């Protein structure tokens, strides 16, 4: 099933494919929250290290902007190069392409990362069981093979 989304009155039209893949809705909200919490702790540690190393070199406003960018770069790098963030790694899950179950492409990971920027995207979990970033990138989380 495919639907279109007109974002915030702008001329940005995103095609979202709602997957009927058998494994696409097996990820529980509890697991997603655990992934998010672990990833947040990892990002917090990276941020603390960055702040300690660069506190005297940048203004407070610039540090905020750098950390915001680093937040998304963090997700992108982990998911593109490893197929998983630290939270997914520790719980035995990885990001996969809905159609092939293989690692997602560069563009899928980029869309997935940008999907996290959409305000209140997390409400999509309550509607479809998947995050909006999963829908727009045609990806889902799958358990690692044992």
List keywords for this structure.
146 residues; alpha+beta; two-stranded antiparallel ribbon; globular
Put the structure in a nutshell.
With about 150 residues, the protein is of the alpha+beta class. It is built from 6 helices and 4 strands.
What does this structure look like?
Helices cover 52% and strands 14% of the residues. It has 146 residues and is of the alpha+beta class. It has one domain (28-143). It has a two-stranded antiparallel sheet with strand order 1-2. Helix 1 (29-54) crosses helix 2 and helix 2 crosses helix 4 (106-115).
Tell me the layout of helices and strands.
Layout: E1 2-6, E2 13-17, H1 29-54, H2 60-82, H3 86-91, E3 93-97, H4 106-115, H5 124-128, H6 132-137, E4 139-143
Antiparallel strand pairs: 1-2, 3-4
